[in-house]
């Protein structure tokens, strides 16, 4: 039920976006095959899950953080395109996603709805050492002389939006998406102490709103 609500919100938001932009700016001689680039800025919105602060109410706080991504790919025709993307995103710590992007546009020559599916893997930051560390979500909560490694994991993001032509070689895209992201936190005792290591795994769910420019 939770995921169904997210998908419904995405669809309704996309319908509003499409109605908000009139069908104007048509271009007849547009490149419909070959290389393209999409540079996107977005905002991820959802409940905070992880924190290194001793605040047990953290999971209830709304978190709004930026997202940056770039996709390079190939247009098969005026409707279908595939690409590989990389990004920089902030959840409760920085993640660096690498993903496959598949997208379909209904009409290429004028303002048109489109959908995209992104799937891949997000990498976490490098390992850090702490003399004293508190993690309220990972018992026994207090750790001494440990290495902390935040890791990403599998990601899946269906996205829908509106494409508005700016010229024969560029489009403005306004998008709304649902983001599913697996993450893992691993605490390792610096000294070789038996049963001292701890691992916490969970998944994050976010709504994403973005603006992008596509060059072809």
Characterize the structure shown:
The structure is a single chain. The chain has an eight-stranded antiparallel β-barrel with strand order 1-2-3-4-5-8-9-10. The two termini are 39 Å apart. The protein is mainly beta. It has one helix at 2-20; strands at 34-47, 62-75, 80-90, 94-105, 112-123, 128-134, 142-151, 153-167, 170-189, 198-215. The protein has a single domain (2-215), classed as Porin.
Task: Give the key terms.
8-stranded antiparallel barrel, mainly beta, Porin, 10 strands, elongated
Order of helices and strands: HEEEEEEEEEE
Largest sheet: 8 strands, antiparallel, barrel
SSE-based structural type: mainly beta
What Rg do the Cα atoms give?
20 Å
Q: How is this fold's topology laid out?
A:
Blueprint: H1 2-20, E1 34-47, E2 62-75, E3 80-90, E4 94-105, E5 112-123, E6 128-134, E7 142-151, E8 153-167, E9 170-189, E10 198-215
Antiparallel strand pairs: 1-2, 1-10, 2-3, 3-4, 4-5, 5-8, 6-7, 7-9, 8-9, 9-10
Short description:
This protein starts with a helix and ends with a strand.
């Amino acid at each position: 039920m939770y995921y169904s609500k997210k998908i419904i919100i995405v669809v309704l938001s996309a319908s509003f976006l499409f109605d908000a932009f009139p069908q104007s700016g048509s271009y007849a001689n547009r490149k419909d095959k070959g290389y393209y680039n999409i540079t996107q800025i977005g905002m991820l919105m959802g409940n905070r899950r992880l924190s290194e602060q001793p605040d047990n109410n953290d999971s209830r706080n709304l978190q709004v953080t930026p997202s940056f991504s770039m996709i390079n790919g190939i247009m098969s025709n005026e409707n279908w395109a595939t690409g590989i993307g990389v990004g920089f995103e902030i959840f409760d710590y920085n993640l660096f996603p690498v993903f496959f992007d598949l997208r379909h546009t209904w009409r290429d020559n004028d303002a048109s709805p489109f959908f995209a599916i992104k799937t891949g893997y997000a990498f976490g930051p490098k390992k850090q050492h702490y003399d004293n560390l508190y993690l309220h979500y990972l018992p026994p909560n207090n750790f001494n002389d440990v290495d902390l490694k935040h890791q990403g994991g599998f990601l899946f993001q269906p996205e829908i939006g509106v494409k508005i032509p700016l010229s024969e070689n560029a489009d403005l895209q306004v998008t709304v998406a649902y983001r599913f992201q697996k993450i893992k936190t691993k605490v390792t005792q610096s000294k070789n102490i038996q049963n001292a290591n701890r691992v916490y795994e969970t998944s994050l769910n976010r709504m994403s709103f973005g603006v992008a420019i596509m060059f072809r």
